[in-house]
Design brief:
The structure is a single chain. This protein is α/β, with parallel strands linked by helices. 43% of the residues lie in helices and 15% in strands. The protein has five domains: 77 residues, DNA polymerase beta, N-terminal domain-like (DNA polymerase, domain 1, Orthogonal Bundle), CATH 1.10.150; 67 residues, DNA polymerase, domain 1 (Orthogonal Bundle), CATH 1.10.150.20; 93 residues, 2-Layer Sandwich (Beta Polymerase, domain 2), CATH 3.30.460.10; 65 residues, Beta Polymerase, domain 3; 234 residues, TIM Barrel (Alpha-Beta Barrel), CATH 3.20.20.140. The chain is globular, with a radius of gyration of 26 Å. Bound molecules: 2'-deoxyguanosine-5'-triphosphate, calcium ion (2 copies) and zinc ion (ZN). The site of zinc ion has 5 residues, from loops.
């Protein structure tokens, strides 16, 4: 069990206790443990092995014993007991945006609502109209939230699917007689969520590979196991599974199969039309002459595209969004290696887990040339935001660390809150002391499009604001985006030379691909940032790059591919513009 698994169990226990109406002190102690474990930089199993669990903040003897029980058996008696009392489907209600344990308790205890479906029915039938705390507006929001949840159900965030896909890829590649394994489907295209995983392989004995595949650890159900295709379910997290399809294909048609199973379906349809016009047919085996059956291309993916007078199209662009047009594929399409640093991150000074030195060290080992430390501002109290005094201290700390550490530039910045009226949480004369300013909206996302847009535009117009952080505020599968006039925002950003963020966190990916493409088309500079709260978050840069490639971003469109000097000039240019 990982730290995250253990934290999740403690959080679930707290939720279940709260839904049952137990006392607040007990509930909070479980929440505290969840937070402590989630924030740990070291593996909890190591701490347990050293018998040091009770040294952790908020972890008493009883909690330590529970952690030991979980690590030892994978089960927790208390959790199972509670689960018998509070059904899983009641816990599901917590996933509705804006719904907390107190509201769920009320619905469950007073109206016997125990699932998304029964809640939906009750609202439709007007059965909750007289329930205290559930006014017309709240009920409308809940209905909206349920619809959103049910639409996203079954799709897994790219960042949750990626490690599992990589693990299965490597395990299969190591099997006897396996010559080649590749990812296909939406994962290869870098979609923000994936329905299932698609793997292709070429092997001496397909049937035995499929058999071994269906018996791998983590498999919870075998859906199909034949000579050329196996399909299984694998546990992602408690109660959530993902399907993995493995297909064995002959070496001579590997390219055609890889092209076909990468999709998208819409892209494939267009490609097949092109083949048909030439009197050819295209399927997962080959591109061939319809009359004679002669194979034109099949071994390599690029051969298929080339025969159809197309350049090889990067998978991220295969969505039938104009990729067949001449010059649609930029020669300098962004790659992972183009990224030189990150401009949005947190340290222990606000709600991060690592120090400035540690973040700099990790960035340096990635070959990056600069980072910018951007702590939360004072309005973000739950994130331990900095008041002006603490920000001044942080600037001094950053400057000192920058002097001490060679080989990487460390800038002092902020992620300043954009307040309700569009003004910022720090005064201009304080912002002026910083090297780079990220401005983000963290509260009050539920307003109308005009209010949200005006609020964002006001921040863009501030001469010290260089980047708008996670512009829509969405959380994939859990929080909808703010409604925004994205075109107006892009136009103003381009005009004022303010960058927009493509937040690379797997929970956000905000701007999303289509918005980033619009921004690019309107001349906006994009910064891809991990919004790291610990050194391990830097690995998420890859999800940001994939999303940027889906938007056809070129290297020069992306601020953090620029040199240190160019970024400093970017900041200066906006300040001098007024
Ligand atoms: P997903 O799994 O919903 O995230 O999306 P994909 O794109 O991975 O779709 P999936 O797993 O159903 O199929 C993988 C690829 O196989 C898909 O992108 C294109 C190809 N494919 C599957 N079924 C069809 C089909 O009926 N027609 C065509 N042209 N291609 C198909
Ligand atoms: Ca798929
Ligand atoms: Ca599939
Ligand atoms: Zn942040």
């Amino acid at each position: 069990m990982t730290n995250a698994d253990i934290a999740r169990v403690f959080k679930e226990i707290a939720d279940m206790l709260e839904i049952k109406g137990e006392d607040a002190f007990r509930i909070n102690s479980y929440r505290r443990v969840a937070r402590t474990v989630d924030d740990l930089a070291t593996d909890i199993a190591d701490i347990a092995a050293r018998d040091e669990l009770s040294n952790l903040p908020g972890v008493g003897k009883a909690s330590a014993a529970k952690i030991q029980e979980l690590l030892g058996t994978g089960w927790l008696k208390l959790r199972e007991e509670l689960a018998r009392q509070v059904p899983e489907s009641v816990l599901e209600l917590l996933r509705i945006p804006g719904m907390g344990p107190k509201k769920v308790a009320l619905l469950w205890q007073q109206r016997r609502i125990d699932s998304l479906d029964s809640l939906k029915e009750a609202i439709a039938a007007g059965g909750l109209d007289d329930l205290k705390g559930f006014g017309k507006k709240t009920l409308a929001q809940i209905s909206d939230g349920i619809e959103f949840l049910q639409r996203s159900v079954g799709r897994t965030r790219l960042g949750n699917a990626w490690p599992i896909a990589a693990e299965f890829h490597d395990t299969i590649a190591a099997m006897k007689g396996v010559k080649r394994v590749e990812q296909a489907g939406s994962l290869r295209r870098g979609r923000e969520t994936v329905g299932d995983l698609d793997l292709l392989c070429h092997a001496d004995d397909g049937e035995s590979v499929i058999k071994a595949f269906t018996q791998l650890p983590g498999v919870t159900k075998i859906l199909a196991a034949g000579g050329t295709k196996g399909s299984v379910l694998v546990e992602l997290s408690r109660g959530r599974e993902i399907q993995i399809d493995l297909r064995v294909v002959p070496e001579e048609s590997f390219g055609a199969a890889w092209q076909y199973f990468t999709g998208s379906k819409e892209h494939n349809i267009r490609l097949r039309e092109r083949a048909l016009k030439r009197g050819w047919s295209l399927n997962e085996y080959s591109l061939s002459d319809s009359k004679t059956g002669k194979v034109i291309a099949s071994r390599e993916e690029a051969d298929v595209y080339k025969a159809l007078d197309l350049p090889w199209i990067p998978p991220e662009l295969r969505e039938d969004r104009g990729e067949f047009e001449p010059d649609a594929i930029p020669p300098d399409l962004l790659t992972d290696g183009d990224i030189h640093g990150d401009l949005h991150m947190h340290t222990t000074a606000s709600d991060g887990r690592n120090t400035i030195e540690e973040m700099a060290g990790a960035a340096k080992s990635l070959g990056w040339k600069y980072i910018c430390i951007t702590e939360h501002s004072r309005s973000s109290t739950i994130a331990n935001g900095l008041d002006p005094m603490r920000l001044k201290q942080l600037i001094a700390d950053v400057r000192e660390t920058d002097r001490k550490i060679n080989g990487i530039k460390i800038w002092a910045g902020t992620e300043v809150d954009i307040l309700a009226d569009g003004s910022l949480d720090y005064a201009d004369d304080l912002l002026e002391k910083l090297d780079f300013v990220v401005a983000s909206i963290h509260a009050g996302l539920g307003k109308d499009i005009k209010t949200n847009t005006e609020r964002t535009l006001a921040a863009i117009r501030n001469p010290y604001v260089n980047l708008i952080g996670h512009p829509t505020g969405r959380m994939i599968n859990s929080r909808r985006p703010m409604s925004l006039d994205m075109e107006a925002i892009c136009r103003e950003a381009a005009k004022t030379r303010t960058a927009l963020e493509l937040n690379a966190s797997m929970y956000r990916l905000d701007l999303k691909d289509q918005h980033a493409r619009l921004a690019r088309d309107l001349g906006v500079t994009i910064a891809i940032c991990c919004d790291a709260h610990g050194v391990e978050s830097f690995a998420q840069m890859h999800y940001g790059v994939l999303t940027a490639r889906r938007a056809a971003l070129r290297k020069a469109d992306v601020l953090n591919t620029w040199t240190t000097k160019q970024i400093e000039a970017f900041v200066q240019a906006k300040r001098e513009r007024r």
